[in-house]
Design a protein that fits this description.
single chain, 200 residues, six-stranded mixed barrel, three-stranded antiparallel beta sheet, 2 helices
């Protein structure tokens, strides 16, 4: 009996010690995410120059957050971190070089993105990527929802769209800086929301 008590006591202490050990924290994920795993691709990072535009709820085709090829999200989303990169689109001609599921890091916006969508040349006539994507072109999901003011989402897209092409890292590692995770456009503060942290 005494031995059994000592065994149970030792097991209890081991359990408490294991609970006190530092653990890897999985970042909070979009509630609509299909997976909570943080996958790592074994491909060396490569820097390219690419055209960058943005799209969101009002100028998606059709308007909303549907995506062509869900990989880790059921709908367009993400918080821009390595384990929960935000959705982006490119044209079909880039399927070999920029396959679905590839992660990229965009230094000027300081967030990670993942290919889950296809640029639609037949998309709306408004927005920064409304004529489809030609050549090496990444259309980044900016956010928004049914309550967003369309004009303000598109204003944010245009404010952030750089000219000319900028550097983008393909297959980045997890060491890149993400100082402000979360959607690029948000509905708060009222009345017009904010663009990359700045009220519109």
């Amino acid at each position: 009996m005494r031995i059994r008590v000592l065994v149970l006591l030792a097991a209890g202490i081991a359990f408490l010690v294991s609970c006190a050990q530092p653990q890897t924290v999985v970042p909070a994920r979009d509630a609509r995410s299909q997976s909570t795993s943080c996958y790592v691709t074994k491909v060396d990072p490569t820097t390219v120059n690419a055209t960058i535009t943005f799209y969101g709820w009002p100028d998606n085709s059709p308007p909303g957050d549907k995506i062509a090829h869900p990989v880790i999200h059921k709908r367009a989303g993400g918080d821009g971190t390595y384990c929960n990169p935000t959705t982006f689109a490119t044209e079909k001609a880039n399927d070999k070089e920029i396959p679905y599921g590839i992660k990229i890091y965009v230094p000027f916006i300081q967030q990670y993105f993942i290919r889950e969508d296809l640029c639609a040349a037949s998309g709306p006539k408004k927005g920064s990527g409304s004529n489809g994507c030609k050549k090496l072109w990444f259309d980044l999901w900016i956010g928004g929802n049914g309550q967003s003011k369309s004009r303000e989402v598109i204003k944010c897209e245009r404010q952030l769209t750089p000219h000319p092409p900028v550097q983008v890292i393909l297959y980045p590692n997890d060491s890149e800086s993400v100082p402000s995770p979360g959607p690029i456009y948000t509905n708060a503060p009222p009345p017009n929301g904010s663009c990359d942290g700045t009220p519109l």
